[in-house]
Amino acid sequence: MPDTVPSFAPRGDKAAVEEGDRLAPKFDADGLITAVAVDARDGAVLMLAHMDAQALALTIETGFAHYYSRSRRRLWKKGEESGHVQKVVELSIDCDQDAVLMRVETAGPGAACHTGHRSCFFRSVPLGAPPSPELQLTVNDGGKLFDPSQVYAAAKKTDTPRF
Amino acid sequence: MPDTVPSFAPRGDKAAVEEGDRLAPKFDADGLITAVAVDARDGAVLMLAHMDAQALALTIETGFAHYYSRSRRRLWKKGEESGHVQKVVELSIDCDQDAVLMRVETAGPGAACHTGHRSCFFRSVPLGAPPSPELQLTVNDGGKLFDPSQVYAAAKKTDTPRF
């Protein structure tokens, strides 16, 4: 983990931020940007989480996805407990530089969601009528790829990506 | 536009939220959830933005993507100015229900970014070294699909999706 504060470019004007060639991320009031991980194999969206400056810097430096857990209020290397680390194949940033997109290869069964599903977005919402408390979600995948009670119960630490 | 406050299910416990079949979105302190739009043709991530309760409800009811613009502080139907509306083919919600994913068909040239690029994530970040102000982004697409000065200069309103 670096001892120094991560060093990005200054924000500059709108044109520089939106179309320039310097990385000048815009962290929000909580010091976070949004991060989306997609499967490098087929582009499927796996998960959405957040990064602080340190998590973004570590992701860029190490090539493994790091996030900031808002619930646990700490840096979080994806897979530190489950072993399902995410190797980043490509990292891109959006026009106003407040979100990053990562194409990742996931160690283990290829699932990103702590529920055991491949993607966190495993439930679809019916369209065409106003939402109501009765509106019923449908599961849009083939089921879980791992049993969370097995993977997280062990609570084992691993630093060895299983590629 | 509906006159009533959108009606979602109550949040319930962790299991109900994460694995249940009811839509119980978690809006943040600013009343927003995150929304990711991907191209229904090939799954490419196009953009990331935010929705308030009304934008989410209108998206579900009308089948066209609505967002909440944090900079303009108002409801925003994607394409209201450019004509590049997003017809939602599928909308899914993530495990903790604070983010939605939409597969969309985009009217016009098929671009989502106001810069003219297909995707807002058109610049990639080199990996393998700590970030620095000198780090250089590279453009990862084939260039712009439309000229923003032409599309937005007209500032024309259109309610007619061009499908």
TrEMBL record, chains A, B:
Enzyme class: hydrolase
E.C. designation(s): 3.5.4.19
Compartments reported by the entry: Cytoplasm
Residues engaged in binding Mg(2+): D94, D96, D98
Entry's Gene Ontology cellular component terms: cytoplasm
One of the Pfam families matching this protein, by short name: PRA-CH
This protein's pathway: Amino-acid biosynthesis; L-histidine biosynthesis; L-histidine from 5-phospho-alpha-D-ribose 1-diphosphate: step 2/9; Amino-acid biosynthesis; L-histidine biosynthesis; L-histidine from 5-phospho-alpha-D-ribose 1-diphosphate: step 3/9
SUPFAM superfamilies cross-referenced by the UniProt entry: HisI-like
Keyword presence, Protein transport: no
Essential cofactor(s): Zn(2+); Mg(2+)
Binding-site residues for Zn(2+), renumbered to this chain: C95, C113, C120
Keywords: Amino-acid biosynthesis, Cytoplasm, Histidine biosynthesis, Hydrolase, Magnesium, Metal-binding, Zinc
GO MF annotations, alphabetized: magnesium ion binding; phosphoribosyl-AMP cyclohydrolase activity; phosphoribosyl-ATP diphosphatase activity; zinc ion binding
Note on cofactor: Binds 1 zinc ion per subunit. Binds 1 Mg(2+) ion per subunit.
GO biological-process terms attached to the record: L-histidine biosynthetic process
Record's catalysed reaction(s): 1-(5-phospho-beta-D-ribosyl)-ATP + H2O = 1-(5-phospho-beta-D-ribosyl)-5'-AMP + diphosphate + H(+); 1-(5-phospho-beta-D-ribosyl)-5'-AMP + H2O = 1-(5-phospho-beta-D-ribosyl)-5-[(5-phospho-beta-D-ribosylamino)methylideneamino]imidazole-4-carboxamide
Domain Phosphoribosyl-AMP cyclohydrolase residue range list: 47-122
Biological role: Catalyzes the hydrolysis of the adenine ring of phosphoribosyl-AMP.
HAMAP family in UniProt: HisI (MF_01021)
Annotated family: In the N-terminal section; belongs to the PRA-CH family.
Subunit text: Homodimer.
Protein name: Phosphoribosyl-AMP cyclohydrolase
Organism listed in the record: Ancylobacter mangrovi
Source taxonomy: Bacteria, Pseudomonadati, Pseudomonadota, Alphaproteobacteria, Hyphomicrobiales
